[in-house]
Write a structure and sequence with these properties.
38% of the residues lie in helices and 16% in strands. With 357 residues, it is an alpha/beta fold. It has two domains: 140 residues, Four Helix Bundle (Hemerythrin (Met), subunit A) (Up-down Bundle); 207 residues, Rossmann fold (3-Layer(aba) Sandwich). The chain binds 5-S-methyl-1-O-phosphono-5-thio-D-ribulose. 5-S-methyl-1-O-phosphono-5-thio-D-ribulose (MRU) binds next to helix 2 and strand 9.
Length: 357
């Protein structure tokens, strides 16, 4: 697999003005092939999110914002009321693509606020504002990634080994990533970090995506099977764990890729700090704890026929939750664009994220 050239390496981008289209890396094809695909409708965007061509909480949010725009961009001749109805029904549709990452709902809600804050505007002007809002969501995500990386890298020392799970990198955001932005910032600060990437069954985001991304950025990365994480800790190869999150409840309980909870328990048993890196767009203050975070259940075939190979007998029962919830008590610190939150408590989260800076 050759590295993408500079000009088309963005995970996703809006092409053109109005009308335009959403262009993205098809992450289902990595690392074998680097292929970019276009989404020209909300339906194509919905399917791209559902099948994980675009995935990772912040990237899903950005894709949904542009997907919503795709649903109304040719409707400038509708009445304002008809336009708003179409906007709402498209947002409702996109909201059905995946349930766990709150960034999806956060971005759709932000887009839906645009007409409410501009009651005087007709569809042609609203479209211009909606494109500006989607671009702002994308740009702010890039800025948040950068800030989280800078805060996070202060927690790492030159020469350390760090375990990560799933892919919380540039491929999962519009910027440098959440968890992986810490490694990029550490590298800029002159620190050599040795990253261990869990392969992340069943869809191998760690083996396929994190290793590909870090290798392309010149970061030292070693892939291990998920079942090796405890032994790698026992061998003292890692001094920290850093993951992203798909939704963080008000008390700090954090949903992330299935397997993260197990890694948090292993880290606790080995007295290794466990850090979760998440922008404010990933926090859901409507949920007091992680108990109410909806967990996506995915197709059993991802386990029984992963990547085309049958690995279980015909007719076997499969359970395939895509996410789990790590309790706040297992998280040493939350790293946000507004600062590092430790200890992880409802009060500390609220005061850091409401600081207004
Ligand atoms: O199913 P995925 O690949 O969308 O799951 C992604 C993750 O779990 C990431 O760790 C999370 O979204 C954080 S991304 C910055």
């Amino acid at each position: 697999m050759t590295a993408p050239d500079e000009k088309d390496s963005s995970t996703l981008r809006w092409v053109g003005e109005l009308p335009g289209k959403l262009n993205m890396i098809d992450q289902t094809r990595l690392p074998e092939e680097f292929v970019r695909i276009d989404c020209k409708s909300p339906e194509e965007t919905w399917h791209a999110i559902k099948r994980l061509s675009v995935r990772g909480a912040p990237a899903i949010g950005v894709a949904a914002a542009y997907g919503l725009l795709l649903g109304v961009q040719n409707d400038e001749n509708l009445s304002r009321e008809e336009f708003l109805n179409k906007l709402q029904s498209t947002a409702d549709y996109l909201a059905q693509s995946r349930p766990t990452a709150v960034n999806l709902f956060w971005a759709l809600d932000r887009m839906s606020q645009v007409p409410k804050t501009h009651p005087e505007l007709a569809p042609p002007e609203l479209l211009v504002r909606l494109l500006a809002e989607a671009r702002a969501i994308e740009r702010e995500d890039q800025e948040m990634c950068r800030a989280m990386g800078e805060f996070g890298q202060t927690l790492l020392e030159d020469g350390q080994g760090v375990l990560t799970h799933c892919n919380a990198g540039a491929l999962a955001t519009a910027g440098e990533g959440t968890a992986l932005s810490v490694f990029y910032a550490a590298a800029r600060a002159g620190k050599q970090i040795k990253v261990y990437a869990d392969e992340t069954r069943p869809l191998l985001q760690g083996a396929r995506l994190t290793s590909w991304e870090l290798q392309n950025h010149g970061i030292d990365v070693t892939v291990i099977c998920d079942s090796m994480a405890g032994w790698v800790m026992k061998e003292k190869r890692v001094q920290a764990v850093i993951t992203g999150a798909d939704r963080v409840a008000a008390n700090g309980d954090a949903a992330n890729k299935i397997g993260t909870y197990s890694v948090s328990l292993l880290a606790k048993a080995h007295q290794i700090p466990f850090y979760v890196v998440a922008p404010s767009s990933t926090f859901d203050f409507a949920l007091l704890t992680g108990a109410d975070i909806p967990i996506e259940q995915r197709d059993p075939a991802e386990i029984s026929h992963g990547f085309g190979k049958q690995t279980t007998p015909d007719g076997i029962q499969i359970y395939n939750p895509a996410f789990d919830v790590t309790p706040a008590e297992n998280i040493t610190a939350l790293i946000t664009e507004k600062g590092i939150i430790s200890p992880v408590t409802t009060e500390n989260i609220a005061s850091t994220l409401n600081s207004g800076s």
